[in-house]
Structure formats: C-alpha cells, structure tokens
Amino acid sequence: MKNDLKEKTLSKIQEEKIKIRPKSYFIVLKIMTYILSAIIALAAILTVNLTLYLPQRTIRMIGKAGIAEYLTLLPWPLLVASGLLIGIFIHFYKNYEGGYKKHFGLAAIIIVLTIIISGGILAASNFNEKIESKPGVNKLYKWNEDNLVPQGPRRRLHKKMNLQIHNYE
Length: 169
What we know:
The protein is mainly α. It has helices at 2-14, 23-62, 67-73, 76-96, 104-124, 127-132, 145-148, 153-160.
C-alpha cells in the first residue's frame, strides 16, 4: 500500500502533473500567514476595544449609567465585526497553524478570551483618549445619536430613558 502511493506520486511527478515547489515558497507562504494572522488579531483587538469604549464614553458625556443605557448605546456592527474577525483568526489557526493537531476547543477559548481581555484592557486604559485627537482616526470616535441608536425598538427604548447626547466638537 505504501509502495503503491510512493510509486504513483513519483510517476505523477515524472509526468509533470505535480510540480515540486522550492522550500523558499513554503517559507514565504508561512511568513505571509503569520503576518495576515497578526493583522487580523490586531484588528479584532481594536474592534473589541471600540465596542467596549464607545458606550462608556457616551455614558460619561450624558451622565447616566446602567446596563440598559450601555446596551442601548452598544455599537452592534462593531460587535459583529469583532466576532467575524475572531472567527477568521480561529479559522487561520485551525487550518494553517497546526491547530487541528492540538486541543482545538481549548485553544479557541484561549484565543477568544485573549482578544476580549486585550480589547478590554485597551478600553480601560488611556489609549483611546490619546488616539481620539489624531486626525483621520477621530472619525471613529465622533458618533452622534443617529449613529448610535438606529430606528426601531432601540430608538423607542432610548427615548423612553430620556437619554440626550450632545455633539462635542
């Protein structure tokens, strides 16, 4: 059985149906995978950071705090984007970094917790206050009531709680 597979593979190589790639090709591919994984992980951490920071910032501006206000002001599109980025990162780990060989469930839980905790630490630190004043990036932080609370049930809940958000320039 082993010899048959070996002979078939060698015959396909000799017939040029399978092209042998140099080792440098796989090294470059591995480096690109690491770079892309790092970019995805950083993007996930930053979206989690913004998801946690923006409601806190707005609550500080309006002066009311509570879980209902926090959930009303939560930027749900950023929450979905965070989940997608975490899912893509886990997919990369599973398929390209040997995650299929290890305890994948435990590794996935560790990845999710690491990204969420890192985003939470950034949200609690003064990172956002420092970057908020930078041109180009400050658009992420300039949210108004229409961006935070879309039409529908969340709008009615928002009006019911009498939340008023002022635009500070």
